[in-house]
């Protein structure tokens, strides 16, 4: 599709995404979607499942790049394929009774995708706990913390939004909320399945 | 005493580098000295970094969703515009699949493997059964060699057609149908050896028999028992044990002790059907199946039921006993040589059994026409019925 969209090499992609270039991300996303979508459709998946899996796979890649801890020993395409393949097989195994059909004799294991996926899984668990803790911390704490940490709003903005008399009040409130969140988070995270 | 919240304020300031140098050094010192304090700091760090990471994750997810939404929108537009403009690759025509078919496809997709396994098991079971049955049947039919078929008749198999035929005949005749009689399981042919009740037939006819019944042409029935059998030469000697039996009368044929010549005109009478059947041919070889010298090869068409029938030459000498035929050869029948029968009778006489064997010495058939020969012979040829 020669529509004046800049084409990147793999290194340029990684560099651009690390800088936070959303256009590069979009470009990358477009580039490899057909491959993964084809793979999932070939292996008894639907279009929507393909998109889901692909987004998850891109997420793993993206987070690794942003952290700066990506060690790419192959093409991005191969890496993404390996990650998405693994994710899809896992989903299939959960979906069907025939869980034992993951044929892993192919050379996708050397892409490092496996180890990255394990890390990503660990992170997913942490985020899930965090989301749960945020659910339970209660209003106004939840909105306050989400506003500050998740939506990157400034303290001034939040002070105005929540109607605090000054920023220090809002800050104090935020710290108290943080302490509460901490208790909830660690109680669940360390204690694992105590929900 | 500071609360945890106050410490958090301190930590955040430290993290963002807002602390003055002295406070900063103080904090770092305390972190190094107090493990509890250090733990507090570590928890704070993990909590905030997780929060940040979570925020970033949500942002990324939104971004990806937006990209996907863009793509979907683009695709929709492209589909509306008509596919040729943009890419030159025509989008595949969408086939409409009914919900039922979709369900069936999903079912097939999910259970394909199971169905395959079941199908192959079924196929294997069928073949195993068929092969097993075939093998079992083959094992049942012991005495038949490859290509060699003994000619005893399985009565059960032809009973049905026989009945139908009888019925048809009776209808034509208009006579009363005969009373049903147990026809026995197998049947063959036998002929008189002596005037006082010894008969000869093939061993394989009476093989496995529980009781034997001899039936003459005029429907006279006698019960018989085997006296002696010779498996190697396929011979059996029977004796009629009925008290009412008074003897056959004088036998019209004599037994040849030597071997007959090649090309000799020979004939036989037998019971491949319910009626006596005449068969004629010549002596084709002086050895039998696979070169067995105890047998002749003859060119008479024989059928199951002919076994045990007499084989006579032109002058009315008995030269053999019909035994079997070769499947893959045109009208190649085999008959045991009469010399072997003679040798058997001689050895039995020498041992001295209850009754002596009074073999016929004169031949009443020599020099008469074939029709007369047969008329004389047919009273001495019998059906041998075997009950198991």
TrEMBL record, chain A:
Q: Where is the RNA polymerase sigma-70 region domain?
A: 28-97
MF-aspect GO terms: DNA binding; sigma factor activity
Q: Which organism is it from?
A: Hymenobacter metallicola
| Keywords associated with the record | DNA-binding, Sigma factor, Transcription, Transcription regulation
Give the record's GO biological process terms: DNA-templated transcription initiation
- NCBIfam families, A to Z: sigma70-ECF (TIGR02937)
- The name this protein carries in UniProt is Sigma-70 family RNA polymerase sigma factor
User: What is this organism's lineage?
Assistant: Bacteria, Pseudomonadati, Bacteroidota, Cytophagia, Cytophagales
Automatic annotation (TrEMBL), chain B:
Q: Which GO terms describe its biological process?
A: proteolysis
Does Aminoacyl-tRNA synthetase appear among the keywords? Answer: no
Q: Which SUPFAM superfamilies match?
A: Trypsin-like serine proteases (SSF50494)
Q: Which Pfam families match?
A: Trypsin_2 (PF13365)
Coiled-coil regions in this chain?
none
Highest taxon listed in the record's lineage:
Bacteria
Keywords, A to Z, come to: Hydrolase, Membrane, Protease, Transmembrane, Transmembrane helix
Asked whether the keyword Transmembrane is assigned, the reply is yes
Membrane-crossing residues?
A: 113-136
**GO molecular function terms noted in the UniProt entry:** serine-type endopeptidase activity
Q: Which InterPro entries match?
A: Peptidase_S1_PA, Peptidase_S1_PA_chymotrypsin, Peptidase_S1C
- What name does this protein carry? Serine protease
Query: Which organism does this record belong to?
Result: Hymenobacter metallicola
């Amino acid at each position: 599709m020669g529509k004046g969209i800049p084409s990147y090499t793999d290194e340029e992609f990684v560099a651009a995404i690390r800088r936070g270039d959303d256009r590069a991300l979009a470009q990358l996303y477009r580039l490899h979607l057909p491959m993964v979508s084809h793979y999932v459709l070939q292996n008894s998946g639907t279009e929507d499942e393909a998109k889901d899996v692909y987004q998850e796979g891109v997420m793993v890649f993206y987070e690794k790049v942003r952290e700066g801890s990506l060690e790419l020993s192959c093409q991005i395409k191969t890496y993404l394929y390996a990650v998405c393949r693994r994710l899809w097989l896992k989903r299939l195994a959960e979906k069907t009774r025939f869980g034992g059909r993951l044929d892993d004799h192919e050379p996708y294991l050397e892409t490092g995708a496996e180890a990255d996926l394990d890390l990503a899984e660990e992170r997913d668990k942490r985020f899930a706990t965090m989301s749960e803790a945020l659910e339970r911390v209660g209003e106004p704490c939840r909105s306050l913390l989400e506003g500050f940490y998740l939506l990157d709003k400034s303290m001034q903005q939040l002070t105005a939004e929540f109607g605090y008399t000054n920023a220090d009040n809002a800050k104090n409130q935020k710290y108290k909320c943080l302490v509460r969140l901490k208790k909830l988070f660690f109680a669940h995270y360390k204690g694992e399945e105590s929900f | 005493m500071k609360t945890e919240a106050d410490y958090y304020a301190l930590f955040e300031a430290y993290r963002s580098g807002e602390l003055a140098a002295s406070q900063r050094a103080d904090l770092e010192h305390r972190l190094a000295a107090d493990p509890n304090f250090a733990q507090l700091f570590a928890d704070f760090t993990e909590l905030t970094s997780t929060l940040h990471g979570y925020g970033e994750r949500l942002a990324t997810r939104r971004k990806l969703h937006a990209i996907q939404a863009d793509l979907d929108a683009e695709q929709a537009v492209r589909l509306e515009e008509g596919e040729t403009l943009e890419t030159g690759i025509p989008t595949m025509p969408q086939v409409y699949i009914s919900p039922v078919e979709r369900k069936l496809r999903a079912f097939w997709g999910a259970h394909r493997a199971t169905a395959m396994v079941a199908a192959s098991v079924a196929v294997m079971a069928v073949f195993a059964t068929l092969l097993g049955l075939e093998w079992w049947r083959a094992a049942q039919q012991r005495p038949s060699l490859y290509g060699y078929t003994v000619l005893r008749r399985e009565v059960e198999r032809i009973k049905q057609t026989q009945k139908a035929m009888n019925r048809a005949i009776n209808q034509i005749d208009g006579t009363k149908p005969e009373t049903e009689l147990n026809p026995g399981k197998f049947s063959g042919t036998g002929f008189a050896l002596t005037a006082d009740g010894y008969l000869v037939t093939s061993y394989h006819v009476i093989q496995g028999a529980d009781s034997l019944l001899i039936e003459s042409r005029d429907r006279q029935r006698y019960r018989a028992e085997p006296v002696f059998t010779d498996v190697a030469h396929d011979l059996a000697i029977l004796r009629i044990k009925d008290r009412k039996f008074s003897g056959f009368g004088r036998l019209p044929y004599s037994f040849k002790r030597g071997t007959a010549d090649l090309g000799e005109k020979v004939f036989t009478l037998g019971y491949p059907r319910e009626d006596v059947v005449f068969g004629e041919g010549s002596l084709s070889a002086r050895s039998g199946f696979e070169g067995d010298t105890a047998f002749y090869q003859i060119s008479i068409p024989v059928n199951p039921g002919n076994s045990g029938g007499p084989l006579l030459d032109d002058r009315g000498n008995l030269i053999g006993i019909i035994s079997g035929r070769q499947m893959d050869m045109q009208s190649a029948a085999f008959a045991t040589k009469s010399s072997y029968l003679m040798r058997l009778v001689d050895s039995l006489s020498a041992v001295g059994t209850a009754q002596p064997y009074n073999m016929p010495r004169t031949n009443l058939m020599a020099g008469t026409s074939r029709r007369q020969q047969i008329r004389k012979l047919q009273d001495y040829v019998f059906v041998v019925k075997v009950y198991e």
